[in-house]
Write a structure and sequence with these properties.
CATH superfamily of the largest domain: Histidine kinase-like ATPase, C-terminal domain
CATH architecture of the largest domain: 2-Layer Sandwich
Distance between the termini: 87 Å
Mean pLDDT: 87
Number of helices: 13
Strand order of the largest sheet: 2-4-5-7-6
Bound molecules: adenosine-5'-diphosphate
CATH class of the largest domain: Alpha Beta
Length: about 400
């Protein structure tokens, strides 16, 4: 038996073969009409390939199946290999039915080679196509996520800008009341009410600033004003900003000045104070009254690791990985409204997200360590802030991390 015999046999029995395949693959008359042409062209290509001893014609047909998903079955096709296997089975059945056993064996052996090659080829084509489909879907999902992220961030920026106007009005009217009624300044009760209002407005301003920072960080548009910066001064400035909560909570802050490098680095001092302030406020917030916070540093190659160590309630291993995410507050959200420095006060969960964004924009890194969460044994937490030590503004590299924006940040 030669391939020419096989080609001849297929050719002379092609009508029967097409009919048998169509019967097997279709469940109703309408489907039969749809698939008959595709099955007929498949056999044409098969015969041509067998006749010339070259898979090109058949491969071309299979490629068209994959490209147009035009294999001879109904509905949506995801897998074409099973269809080809069915055709092979029908073809083999017909050979067994129509031929003498000896001839059938020869034909089946020759046919096996042709179909196996075709099945391998189709399987490869299909895997490639499925992979490409999945890549497309992944890309679409990613684009959708990016759009969502952007609209979330746009919303935050718009909301923050809109909130500013009424706050300015409240501040303005409060001052006008005091101007119109100077006698109120002598009234302790009235002044206490005014102070309550002023501190509420101040807190609102801070929240709005945080919201704007979140949107700048999310959009990768944070602006750094790099200049020679001394970490000792940064840490001192941040420690002054937490003096009153430390006093209220009867806590101590120990700064190990000798561990902090004396030389300057190029960084944005205001942004670094902002980060240190947030990390120190958290250390205060998540440590019971009377606790202690230590700030120390160690020099590593190219970086300074500023550590803020507290002896507070600690962080569970599960939470360590996501406290730096947006709105990552751990625990009871009903605590949110309590005071800014109150023990376990809770906040909107933006502080660490902003800190991470600022430090990463500097080319640094920030992470936390803790033996776990335990309100009785107080394992404490250590926050590591890795700040790059730079002798000069980093030319291209630095400008790459400084992205200009016309958005107001304060
Ligand atoms: P917020 O304090 O507004 O909730 P942050 O982003 O500053 O938001 O902190 C996120 C979460 O990380 C906090 O809710 C808290 O659970 C945890 N956390 C941060 N700092 C500490 C700390 N020093 N000790 C224990 N938990 C902390």
């Amino acid at each position: 038996m030669t391939v020419t015999d096989l080609a001849r046999w297929l050719d002379s029995n092609s009508t029967v073969l097409v009919q048998a395949v169509v019967e097997k693959l279709s469940q109703n008359e309408a489907q039969k009409a749809q698939v008959i042409e595709t099955v007929a062209s498949f056999f044409e290509s098969l015969i041509e390939s067998v006749r010339h001893g070259d898979s090109a014609a058949l491969n071309d047909r299979l490629s068209r199946w994959v490209e147009g998903r035009s294999a001879p079955t109904e509905g949506e096709l995801t897998r074409l290999v099973p269809v080809l296997i069915s055709i092979k089975q029908v073809n083999a059945e017909q050979i067994r039915l129509l031929c003498e056993p000896a001839q059938a064996v020869d034909l089946l052996i020759a046919l096996d080679v042709v179909y196996d090659r075709a099945i391998n080829y189709l399987s490869q084509l299909e895997s490639d196509a499925l992979l490409a489909d999945m890549r497309d879907q992944l890309q679409q999902a990613q684009q959708q996520l990016e759009r969502l992220d952007k609209s979330k961030s746009d919303f935050i920026a718009v909301a923050a800008h809109e909130l500013r106007t009424p706050i300015t009005l409240v501040e303005g009217y409060a001052n006008m009341v005091l101007d119109a009624r100077p006698d109120l300044k002598q009234d302790e009760g009235a002044m206490a009410l005014f102070e309550g209002m002023t501190s509420g407005v101040k807190r609102l301003r801070e929240i709005i600033r945080d919201m704007l920072d979140v949107s700048l960080i999310t959009l990768d548009m944070i602006e750094l004003h790099a200049q020679p910066t001394w970490l000792n001064q940064i840490i001192d400035a941040a420690s002054h900003s937490v003096e009153s909560p430390l006093r209220e909570r009867r806590m101590k802050l120990r700064i190990e000045h000798e561990t902090i490098p004396k030389r300057a680095t190029y960084a944005d001092p205001e942004r670094l104070v902002q980060v240190l302030n947030k990390i120190l406020m958290n250390a205060i917030k998540y440590t019971p009254d009377g606790g202690e916070v230590i700030v120390q540093a160690r020099e590593l190659t190219g970086f300074v690791d500023v550590m803020v160590i507290d002896n507070g309630i600690g962080i569970s291993p599960n939470d360590l990985s996501h406290i730096f995410g947006m709105f990552s507050t751990v625990g009871d959200a009903s605590l949110h409204s309590s005071g800014k420095s109150k023990f376990r006060g809770g906040g909107p969960g933006l502080g660490l997200y902003i800190s991470k964004g600022i430090i990463e924009a500097h080319g640094g890194n920030i992470w936390a360590e803790s033996a776990g969460y335990d309100e009785l044994n107080l394992p404490g937490s250590t926050f590591h802030i890795m700040i790059p030590m730079r002798n000069a503004p980093q030319g291209d590299n630095l400008s790459a991390i400084i992205m200009k924006t016309d958005k107001e940040v304060t």
